[in-house]
Amino acid sequence: MRLPGVEPGSIAWKAIILTVGLQTPVMLEIEVHHHSLSFSNSHVRSLSTNSSPSPLFSITNPSGVEEKTGIPMKGSKVVLKGMRYPELENWVQSHGYRPGQALMLWKRLYGNNIWARHSEELEGLNKDFKRMLSEHAEFKALSLKDIYTASDGTKKILFKLEDGLVIETVVIPCRRGRTTVCVSSQVGCAMNCQFCYTGRMGLKRSLSAAEIVEQAVLARRLLSHEVGTITNVVFMGMGEPLHNFENVIKAADILVDEQGLHFSPRKVTVSTSGLVPQIKRFLNESNCALAVSLNATTDEVRNWVMPINRKYNLEMLLGILREELRLKHNYKVLFEYVMLAGVNDSIEDAKRLIDLVRGIPCKINLISFNPHQGSQFKPTREEKMIEFRNILAEAGCIVFLRPSRGDDQMAACGQLGKLGEIQAPLLRVPAKFQGALEASL
Ligand code: SF4
């Protein structure tokens, strides 16, 4: 397989095979056999042991969690936050209790400002029911490790998972009563976007639905008194959410349940780097909002900065959106465009972007690049971002400039995670852009 700008057999080549060729088991076997991988062993294991023809949907279960008849288990206990309401109701009934008691439990897990983490916090439930829960149910999926506060009030929460891995969740207070929690869907990420710190980690594993849901629950429980009501959820933390499709969809269903956390579906946004088949499924199966990280106006640039584009190019990505959104009423996709100086921020880029999104109901967020250790890109100057924005706006696009939030605590977009000894490689810079990158330094 030949890839432009990448030597066959090089480390970069192997990383692309892993990130782009995840649906090709033969390629995976070759790479696992060679063992010179820039990803963790757990990632290799999760790929190599999977015999499904569609490994993008294979989820490595968190340590100690097994799936039995669709009900998430930890040892002999069910994981309460891994169940949609009908599943919880069935499980409660299977233990001889009434549906009304299931609803009371659900409301104490997710509503009424209780956010229970222990059977003792279930005020008003009968003693037998509480005893049964303490014997057969697990309330917790995460434990708090640390909270950092950036100078602009953004909070980065570090959570420890059962298996010792750490994820990051960010709470971003905004004006006008809107506060957003940015949740992670994986530990690390397989997509290797070149501007993203998380991408350098490689993929360690995907999160369970309970681990995703509990980030939002604990953000409310820990921080509501300080930041006010958390109104919005964005799946823009660590990981590619649609690479963990089933658990992300399940978590989104739990987040929007009207008797529980009750986030509005339009205020729960799932972001993707552009996994085309999963986008189609998402638009058909979920009412939640979709964001697509675009970041380039040509395949040449996108192949480099977002290697997933070598599998699903701009035409395929924008084609599926154009086709699917025709069937959805009153729905706009959000395009995110991280502005990289000298790479994707020219006037020609602005004009191409207008052409690319024509016919797609959308909003566009222009995002300031957040530098991190080892990053080769520089942020576009503010005046240039404004000029770029104005060109789009004059052509009739709905476009916003998004300032960086929380960057002094590495809590900003693309800055989450911690690099281990083994890192995903930086891809070779296409010759055409080497000068531009040097000039922007
Ligand atoms: S930008 Fe998103 S999809 Fe790309 S590497 Fe980072 S976390 Fe993964």
Automatic annotation (TrEMBL):
Principal place where this protein is found? cytoplasm
Which cofactors does this gene product need? [4Fe-4S] cluster
Q: Does the keyword Zinc-finger apply?
A: no
A GO molecular function term, named singly, is: 4 iron, 4 sulfur cluster binding
The record, for PROSITE patterns, names:
RADICAL_SAM
Q: Which Pfam families match?
A: Radical_SAM
Under the heading CDD domains, the entry gives:
Radical_SAM
UniProtKB keywords: 4Fe-4S, Cytoplasm, Disulfide bond, Iron, Iron-sulfur, Metal-binding, Methyltransferase, rRNA processing, S-adenosyl-L-methionine, Transferase
Domain (Radical SAM core) spans 175-408
A Gene Ontology term for the protein's cellular component: cytoplasm
Q: Which domain of life is it from?
A: Eukaryota
Record's subcellular location: Cytoplasm
Q: Name one GO biological process term.
A: rRNA processing
In terms of NCBIfam families, this protein maps to:
rRNA_mod_RlmN
The name this protein goes by in its record: Radical SAM superfamily protein
Annotated source species: Abeliophyllum distichum
